[in-house]
Amino acid sequence: MKVRDNMKSHLLLAIIGTFGVMIGAQTQEGFISLDCGLPLDESPYNNSFNGLTFTSDSNFIQTGKNGKVDKDVFDRFGKQYGTMRYFPDGKRNCYSLDVKRGTNYDIVVSFLYGNYDGRNLEPSFDLYLGTNKWARIDLGSRPNGTRHEIIHKTKSNSLDICLVKTGTTLPMISAIEIRPLGNDIYLTKSGSLALFFRDYFSTSVEEIRYADDIYDRVWYPFFDSPYKQITTNLDINNSDTYKVPKTALMSAATPKNASEPLLITWTPKPSNAEVYLYMHFAEIEALEATQKREFDVILKGNFNHSGFSPPKLELYTLYTAEAVQCDSEGCNLQLVKTPKSTLPPLINAIEVYTVIEFPQVETSQSDVAAIKNIKATYQLSKISWQGDPCLPLDFSWENLRCNYTDASTPPRITSLDLSNSGLTGSITQTLQNLTQLQELDLSNNSLTGSIPTFLANMKSLSLINLIGNNLTGSIPQALLDRRKEGLVLKLEGNPDLCTLSSCKPKEKTKFLLPVIASAASLLVVVVVVALIFVFRKKKVPLDLNTPTSMTITDGRQASQSESSILSKKIRFTYTEVQEMTNNFEKALGEGGFGVVYHGCVNGNQQVAVKLLSQSSSQGYKHFKAEVELLMRVHHINLVSLVGYCDEGKDLALIYEYMPNGDLKQHLSGKPGGFNLSWENRLKIAVDAALGLEYLHTGCKPPIVHRDIKSTNILLDQNFQAKLADFGLSRSFPTGNETHVSTVVAGTPGYLDPEYYQTNWLTEKSDIYSFGIVLLELITNCPIIQPSREKPHLVDWISFMITNGDITNIVDPHLHQNYDIGSVWKAIEIAMSCVSPSSAGRPNMSRVANDLKECLIAEESRIGERQDMESKSSMNYSRDSYTEMSPKAR
Ligand SMILES: *[C@@H]1O[C@H](CO)[C@@H](O)[C@H](O)[C@H]1NC(C)=O
Ligand SMILES: *[C@@H]1O[C@H](CO)[C@@H](O)[C@H](O)[C@H]1NC(C)=O
Ligand SMILES: *[C@@H]1O[C@H](CO)[C@@H](O)[C@H](O)[C@H]1NC(C)=O
Ligand SMILES: *[C@@H]1O[C@H](CO)[C@@H](O)[C@H](O)[C@H]1NC(C)=O
Ligand SMILES: *[C@@H]1O[C@H](CO)[C@@H](O)[C@H](O)[C@H]1NC(C)=O
Ligand SMILES: *[C@@H]1O[C@H](CO)[C@@H](O)[C@H](O)[C@H]1NC(C)=O
Ligand SMILES: *[C@@H]1O[C@H](CO)[C@@H](O)[C@H](O)[C@H]1NC(C)=O
Ligand SMILES: *[C@@H]1O[C@H](CO)[C@@H](O)[C@H](O)[C@H]1NC(C)=O
Ligand SMILES: *[C@@H]1O[C@H](CO)[C@@H](O)[C@H](O)[C@H]1NC(C)=O
């Protein structure tokens, strides 16, 4: 609607003129203003519109590269958004910023792509605040960039802002602005406040921000036709806790027709979002003795403040003390004149926020401080060592493991593996701050100095591996005592370390120990060889925990399990599988190769456990294929593997739990009816397409899934789709060959006819199956239905299209609630995917991009419909609000 267009042109990022370059008397204390990607030799600078000092981001992040927007984009947006940092390496890259614990901060991050890489391919990725997802950033169709703002109370003295790669495009960021707020404002019952809009009522076109606003909030002007503007030049007392800038309070809106209420309506996104509302008032008209302004402030169904009179030339803020939820028609704020009042209602400024819950805890602060110190001491540059060490699980640091007691307890670091890490210098004291550490591996480095005594005082330690260093001196007696209590201490390969016999001639054990030790090592070797022999005979083992030999212990326990616990726990015993599923209590479903059970690991992580039926002859092969593949590939749209069990005949795969089941169930209306809207279906299609695109183009060598079907597309708690079941997957050959010849496998109906005929497998077979899934999403018809004129869905659709009988193709459960163009485009994509000849099929990147366009078309339809449906005098969408606009020339 018109209102929104007006809004856009008002959304100037940079303030031009009037309010600019003021004072300098105002303090910027606690402000963090980072111009990401700014070269150090241009840092710092004062920005041209309000004098705020921006610095380069390079002291706050170790990874990423500097980029620069296109020249013409630069000219339009100016210096602050001219450079960016982008992240070609690693899955998660994090800024680590020093903040004050327990402080309410206004945090703003901005993204402007500006074709910095010359590829004209806008990226999309996820934004995290600490361990929690804050927002999805999708710069597609955002030539003017986007900004996200949140009011958030910090839980520690450091704040991580992380960018997470989710597809093939690279995350990037243009600016970070952090402003401490008063701690008595913007309080919530729970969660943080994402800005939805913040406006002052004026016909002006100027944005207001620092220095008028001491917190550097940005106030956009807003006005609409049923309003009448009143203004004042008098000074307004804004020392109320919210400190709305005086310049924003100097104007106000009242209804044109003085007997009508003043209406402000908007549609939150999502429509059931929890909302906090802040309304700022000041009486700016000089009232005569006989005049009175009094009104009720009513947010339909939620809030009723009756008989309110704004104080004279003084700020007064009314707000919702608890989160409110508007009804399905949106939020409807009315200021209604009371019978006593002689003047119409008035309002000067308004802010609306939606609640984002950040439920995930962070790793114990003392562990974080310690591990960061260790990282700095040894100058470790491990790409995954950014952000929180243990959470979220998907991005936990490599080479360490954590104990996750339950969802509300901060995880603790229990194992640290810094072998082969090029460590030099002595063993750092800071290790002792990792008080829950059980296993410490510093083997194969160049550590010098003596073995510190503090290791003996770390009560949790059960294994210390110092093999292959240059340590000197003798072994502390206290450590030798711990060894007698069961501590495993590995010390070989330190040529200058005094061995027991040479340094401690007094003890009786001196002659005994080496004997026991070598006897123990011999035993280990024998056991290992025997085990390998047993495994080899049965089947090729999954060699993920290669045992090491040569362990000095007191002779009681040198076994395979000790050396293997150093690798990330992923292999489970059958007993553990029984425990995690509570003895196979709850079955979730049954697949081709066995029953899937619900389970729980680490106390709180829900998992799905697929137990392979022993009768399945192909079982072990598929099992092995799947474990090997899932250990190698990781993508947000692929179901991830938590672990596996490979114990004799008992084989199990343990996956992340997908609470919303599979796509097929939803299409057939099973859980809770036919509730997949067209938008939902497109989102699922895009997710699945991205997962498949990753297999085809993101993996080297590429992988063909071979069993794409609607039952293998699973949905997580947010209805994000992930591909599952990789038992049939094959890597395809690199080099000049374009296909591999295999025995045909897959699911009837979804099977590529060309592959079926030729036995030649290429990624195009997946594209065919994906096309079938798309047709299912569109039509919700069975793929093969013998009673139909054309039993196979593909033939039937072609038949219907040729006959021009198109309305009957689309799933009636959608009730024609869709953008028809979007549906047609989807049909077109699907039909190109199912071309009989693989040469006629598009590649997955193309499919994914085309589907995204369908989604955008559908989303914009939904946006417009909401505009029209709400009888609003003011209408916002988050999208239009967060749009960044270039500054005027
Ligand atoms: C930038 O602003 C600060 C304070 O606002 C001032 O001290 C400094 O001199 C300014 N620097 C430049 C280069 O203008
Ligand atoms: C980007 O900004 C320009 C200049 O203000 C405007 O003309 C254009 O419509 C904007 N693009 C979008 C997609 O909002
Ligand atoms: C502004 O208002 C505050 C409290 O409402 C009051 O304490 C203060 O004295 C006022 N300041 C002026 C200059 O009137
Ligand atoms: C003002 O509103 C009142 C009550 O809704 C209505 O009766 C009246 O006609 C309106 N006046 C004008 C000029 O529109
Ligand atoms: C608001 O409260 C006042 C006084 O309590 C009452 O008269 C009025 O009807 C209420 N309005 C609504 C819409 O609930
Ligand atoms: C380690 O712990 C000590 C004592 O609790 C503390 O003073 C020190 O700052 C900690 N060091 C690091 C790097 O966290
Ligand atoms: C994890 O921590 C809890 C609480 O401190 C403890 O009870 C449990 O034994 C620990 N688990 C492991 C595997 O260390
Ligand atoms: C130690 O490092 C060397 C050279 O980098 C490597 O060949 C060897 O396999 C490593 N040993 C262990 C046990 O990791
Ligand atoms: C150990 O130190 C010696 C002498 O300082 C040096 O020659 C040797 O390379 C070092 N070994 C390792 C593994 O760093």
Automatic annotation (TrEMBL):
Keyword terms: ATP-binding, Kinase, Leucine-rich repeat, Membrane, Nucleotide-binding, Phosphoprotein, Receptor, Repeat, Serine/threonine-protein kinase, Signal, Transferase, Transmembrane, Transmembrane helix
GO MF annotation, one: protein serine/threonine kinase activity
Residue ranges with Polar residues bias: 871-883
Region ranges (Disordered): 862-889
Membrane-spanning ranges: 511-535
Binding positions for ATP per the UniProt entry: K610
SUPFAM superfamilies reported in the protein's UniProt record: L domain-like, Protein kinase-like (PK-like)
Enzyme Commission code: 2.7.11.1
Subcellular location: Membrane
Reactions performed catalytically: L-seryl-[protein] + ATP = O-phospho-L-seryl-[protein] + ADP + H(+); L-threonyl-[protein] + ATP = O-phospho-L-threonyl-[protein] + ADP + H(+)
Keyword Repeat applies: yes
Residues annotated as signal peptide: 1-25
Short name of any one Pfam family annotated for the protein: PK_Tyr_Ser-Thr
Top class in the EC scheme: transferase
Membrane topology: Single-pass membrane protein
Gene Ontology CC annotation, any one: membrane
Stretches assigned to the Protein kinase domain: 582-855
PANTHER family: LEUCINE-RICH REPEAT PROTEIN KINASE FAMILY PROTEIN (PTHR45631:SF124), OS07G0107800 PROTEIN-RELATED (PTHR45631)
Protein name (Swiss-Prot/TrEMBL): non-specific serine/threonine protein kinase
